[in-house]
Each structure stands twice: as C-alpha cells, then as structure tokens.
Amino acid sequence: MKFWKRAVLAGAALLLASSASFAQDVKIGFVVKQPEEPWFQDEWKFAQEAAKEKGFTLVEIGAEDGEKVQSAIDNLGAQGAQGFIICTPDVKLGPGIVAKAAANDLKLMTVDDRLVDNGGQPIEDVPHMGISATKIGEAVGQAIVDEIKKRNWNMAEVGAIKVSYDQLPTAVDRVTGATSVIEKAGFPAANIFNAPQAKTDTEAALNAATTVVNAHPEIKHWIAVGLNDEAVLGAVRATEGVGIPAENVIGVGIGGAESAINEFKKPSPTGFFGTVIISPKRHGYETALNMYEWIANDKEPEKLILTSGQLATRGDYEAVRKELGIQ
Ligand code: GLA
Q1: Which among 66, 142, 200, 314 would be 20 to 30 A from 25, CA to CA?
Q2: Do β-strands 249-255 and 272-277 pair in parallel, antiparallel, or remain unpaired?
C-alpha cells in the first residue's frame, strides 16, 4: 500500500475512534417533575433507547420541587454532563433554571411543560417539545360529545367535572379546549363545575372532584375532563365513591400510559371511557436525540415542536398504541 493511502486510512480510523469515544463521554440529564407517573417512566424508557443507540449516558433524575431542580442541575454540572432535558415541577422556575444551566455550562431543552419568564410569557429561547394542548383538549371534548349523543343523554341534565390546574399553561389549554367544544355542542356552561387540584396526581384530583360530586347530588350523569389521565381517573374515582354507576359517567383523559391501560384492562368498563394517546416516544427519544445532536454535532434543535394525539377507547387502545409504536 502506498504511504499516502495508509496515512488516509489511519487518519480515518483515528477519526472513527475519537468520535466513538466522544459519544461515550456525552452525558445528558433527563429531569422530570413526577418520576412515579407512568408517562414520565415511559419518557425515560424511550430516552434510554436513544442513549443506547448513540452510545451516550442518560442520567434520570426526579425533581419534585424547586430545590431538587437546583441540586439536580448542579449535580449534572459536577458530573461533567453537557446538557439536560427537563419537565419542571413549576414553570415559574424558568429564569432560575436558565441561569443555573448557564452557570453549569449545560445546554437546556424542556419537555411537556414550557418555562415562563417573570411576566408569565413562555421563554422562547429554550428549545421545547410539548403537546398541541388546545387541539388535544378539543379531541377530548369531541369524544365526550359523541358519546353523550350515543347514550342519548339530555345535555341540560349532565354535569361536567373540570379538574383544573391553572398554574400550568398546558393544563389550562387542554381543559379549555375540551370545554369549548362541549359548550359549542350545547352543553350548558352553568353545569361545568371547576375542581381545582392541588397537585397533578390522581389523589389530588379525587379530592377536588369529590367536593364537586358531593355538592350536586341532583346530577345523575357526569362527564369529566382534566390535564391528564390521572386527573380524569381521580374524577371517575370520585363518582364511584358516591355510588354513581359506571354507565352514567364519561371521562376522557390525555396520555395513554399505564394508568389508562390498566383501567381499560379491568373486567368491566368503568367511567373512564377513553384517552387521547400522546407519544412518550417522541417526547423521550426525540428530545434526547436532539440534545445529543446539539452536543456532539453542534446541531441546534428546533425551538418549538408540538406533538399530536389520537383518541383510544377500551375497544381499540391496543391497535392505536401499535400504530403509534408505543407498546
Ligand atoms: C404534563 C402532564 C403530564 C403529561 C405531559 C405531556 O407534564 O403533567 O401528565 O400529560 O404534560 O406533555
């Protein structure tokens, strides 16, 4: 072999070796606000798939409050990570998170819940992947309207449990999307009862919804909407708690992870009629991959990506999940 040929080959081998060892040195944090929630477990699972594929290390961290977020970021900095993806426990932590990331020289992307500045406006500089909240909320509303009609209920006599969490913009957009469609179809606004939850889990939703159902013993038929499956499941549990039969309840959630699937697997149907399945694969795998590309190849992610959803019920959830590639 001629000398120059050998030199080129050696150079190429060196390049390959160094890029492989670089991948091994890439460390990315994936910080979530509610590690016990199946949605976030799925996000982690799919983010790990990206890590395996590209050969970087993914550090999973649960951070349920501001203090834990701060120490998570410092920790990642100390471990030599180059960036992280976060679903924050409180979007108002936005400016603090941006500053901490910069102080630790970490690239920052958000998932699910978009950071806001001190004036409550989204921080548009930080790349974000979230769901198309209003549209998905509208799909929830439409599913409920269709089912009310199918069951021949008189809308004037139906009550709506609106499980709300107003400090989170995506939650507001989701429930408003749902109630706007329901109202447009003739549902009386006066029959929509607000059930503000203190936290975004099933227990908090159950507590909030129980107050509503107890206050309206005259109502026989209920519908329920909320930010996610956990919120709607809490409302459904509240109706069960006061003895309302499952066939008198139509709850439609958002998510489609294990909480919803377990409900569909129960031997007989509950008031949890359906869920709009969103994609933890896109939110986990894609954000992790985008962060990797940013670190390794200087390829900046798009500033805003909004993902879609698809309605699934007890009868077709397996097929819908398959179609979305998320089983
Ligand atoms: C919020 C909710 C989660 C999930 C994600 C999806 O973070 O709290 O349950 O719905 O949005 O983006």
Answers
A1: 66
A2: parallel
| Token pair listed for 95 | 């400016």
Question: Does position 3 have pLDDT exceeding 80, yes or no?
Answer: no
Q: Alpha helices of the chain — where are they, by DSSP H? A: 3-25, 38-54, 66-78, 94-103, 133-150, 169-184, 202-215, 229-241, 258-265, 280-281, 287-297, 317-324
Residues in the chain: 327
Cα(278) to ligand 1 centroid in Å equals 9
**pLDDT at residue 324, as a whole number:** 86
CA of 111 to the centre of ligand 1 (A): 9
Is the predicted pLDDT of residue 115 greater than 80, yes or no? yes
DSSP single-letter state for residue 300 = P
Within 8 A by CB and 6+ apart from 70, the residues are 96, 100
Confidence of residue 8 (pLDDT cuts 50, 70, 90): very low
pTM of the predicted model as reported, rounded to 2 decimal places: 0.92
**CA 53 to mean position of chain CA atoms:** 23
Structure tokens given for 326: 């998320």
**Cα gap 124→94, rounded to integer Å:** 11
User: With 70 as the cut, is the pLDDT of residue 15 above it?
Assistant: no
Residues with CB under 6 A from ligand 1: 37, 39, 87, 112-113, 130-131, 170, 200, 227-228, 254-255, 278
Residue-wise pLDDT tens digits, 161-175: 999 999 999 999 999
Cα of 324 vs centre of ligand 1, distance in Å, is: 18
Take residue 180 and report the two structure tokens written for it.
């706007």
